[in-house]
Amino acid sequence: NYFEDGFRVYERGIALLEPAFVTHLWLNYARDLVTRFSNTKKERIRDFFERCLTKIEAAPFERKAPGHVQPEHAALLFLEYASFEEKHIIRR
After folding, report:
1. Distance in angstroms (rounded) separating the CA atoms of residues 42 and 56
2. What whole-number distance in Å separates Cα of residue 62 and Cα of residue 37?
3. Mapping DSSP to helix (H, G, I), strand (E, B) and coil, where does residue 89 land?
4. What is the C-alpha to C-alpha distance for residues 21 and 12, in angstroms, rounded to an integer?
5. How far is C-alpha 92 from the geometric centre of its chain's CA atoms?
C-alpha cells in the first residue's frame, strides 16, 4: 500500500514538471516499478512503459506540455524498457 502511495507521488510530479526535468522522474519511476513488481505484475510494467513512450515529444521546438519527454532523452527510456523485457520476459 505504501508503494502505491509512492507511485501516485511519481504520477503527480510527472504531471506537473516541464519536460526538461521529467525524464529522470520517469526513469526512477520505471526502475522502482520493475524492482517492486517484476515478478508479479509484468503487464502493469509494460503498460507503464507504453504510456511513458507515448509521451515522447515529436517536435522538439514546439511548446512542450508537462509530463512529456524530450526526444534526446527517449533512448534512456527505450533502453530501460528493453532491459526489463530481456531480464524478465524473454525466455532463454
Report:
1. 22
2. 36
3. coil
4. 13
5. 26
Using one digit for the tens of pLDDT, what is the confidence trace for 17-48? 877 778 888 888 889 999 988 888 889 889 98
Read off the amino acid at residue 16. L
Q: Are 68 and 56 in contact (CB under 8 A)?
A: yes
- Residue 70: name the closest of 82, 80, 60 by CA: 60
- The most distant pair of C-alpha atoms in the chain lies apart, rounded to whole Å, by 44
pLDDT at 61: 52
Contact 15, 41 (CB under 8 A): no
Distance of CA 47 to the CA centre of its chain: 10
**Residue whose entry in the numeric block shows the C-alpha cell 509494460:** 46
